[in-house]
Amino acid sequence: MSETFRQRALALDAADPLADRRKLFALDDGVYLDGNSLGALPVHVPARVQDVLTRQWGELRIRSWDESGWWTAPERIGDRIAPLVGAAAGQIVVGDSTSVNVFKAVVAATRLAGLAGGGRDEILVDATTFPTDGYIAASAARLTGHRIVPVAPDDVPSALGERTAAVLLNQVDFRTGRLHDLPGLTAAVHAAGAIAVWDLCHSAGALPVGLDEHGVDLAVGCTYKYLNGGPGSPAYLYVAERHQAAFDSPLPGWNSHADPFGMTPDYAPADGSVRGRVGTPDIVSMLTLEAALDVWDGVSVDAVRAKSLALTDFFLECVAAYAPAGRVVSVTPAAHAERGSQVALRCAEAEPVMRRLIERGVVGDLRRPDVLRFGFTPLYVGFADAERAARVLAGVLEETPAR
Q: Which of 224, 238, 247, 376 is catalytic?
């Protein structure tokens, strides 16, 4: 049986239009299925960073703010991310962490909602969200006098009402890999007169998002997962063009001032996406991200999505064929319309199983207490990787006593 799957994997890899992208990344002989936590290093990035350090900083020093384009990097790099999430230029600014951008977006959303009046005092938050989103939203609610309402994404339409100011949702659930209905939920939020804020951390670079097409108001995302920007690389903030003139950031720093070098005591916000900036950008990390984005040149997000679904389908098929009966159960939806780019398997022995997988060259991760996560990054993960991971998983399960 395993030989049949191996032959299929080789044939699928041979026909893969994205197969040539793999050589652009620094990979070893193992199987790296944790790109949904930290993307692999593009091989050309170290040389580009060396130039940032030795020439731009070491030789040009302060001149690099102009001559090396440091000052305009947040918007320039935002425009490179924009096509990957379905946004026109001029709506994304790069900088700060995801958490900081969530805070900006949620507070700004309540202020946008308040412009219409009506006493909207509730913020709906994805009850299954990544914890930080919940923490930040709760703090934003306390600061703005709103009430947090945790709700499962599927229940958002029935929870919306005249008191809803903003809704913060994740497009892909970080534990299960479930893909939520961004178009439908955004439309429901708008029908209720509220503002939709989306977290794209587990979707950008893995599947089409369509921010402009679906009328999303505000969105945030990280760049160190599927966008391969490096550990702690700066996040980004999307502000739809129609909201930019009214966007009122709760963190009005000097970098977002209309005249940042005027050093005036009164704040006057800049026009456009620049309003999302706060303080001095993290230039080394930001330019590392800019270099990493080169791997996307000429890549269609639709092609990435097609390969992602084929990879996860094939992996699930291999797991079903190889793994001992009853030891793992997929909690990732089978339906393509409900699946991101990861497979989450419930396993009672998740911690020792993942530890042994990593020891044998198959790197995934886990979410306690019992979820094994395998992220499939289509630019560098192949079908042979998926087959090998499933085969090694089966062997580890056979050796690990069931609870």
A: 224
- Side-chain-side CA neighbours of 65 within 13 Å: the count stands at 6
Residues facing 122 on adjacent strands: 147, 164
Entry pTM: 0.97
Residue 84 and residue 61: Cα distance in Å, rounded? 32
Each residue's pLDDT tens digit, 291-337 = 999 999 999 999 999 999 999 999 999 999 999 999 999 999 999 99
**What is the Cα–Cα distance from 221 to 102, expressed in whole angstroms?**
9
Catalytically annotated residue among 5, 32, 130, 226: 130
Is 199 marked active-site?
Answer: yes
Contact 397, 354 (CB under 8 A): no
Catalytic, 224? Answer: yes
Query: Could you tell me whether strands 195-199 and 164-170 are parallel, antiparallel, or unpaired per DSSP bridges?
Result: parallel
CA distance 12 to 182: 31
Q: Which positions of the chain have pLDDT values less than 50?
A: none
Give the active site residue among 173, 199, 282, 385. 199
pLDDT at 187 (0 to 100): 98
Backbone angles phi, psi at 143, to 5 degrees: -70, -30
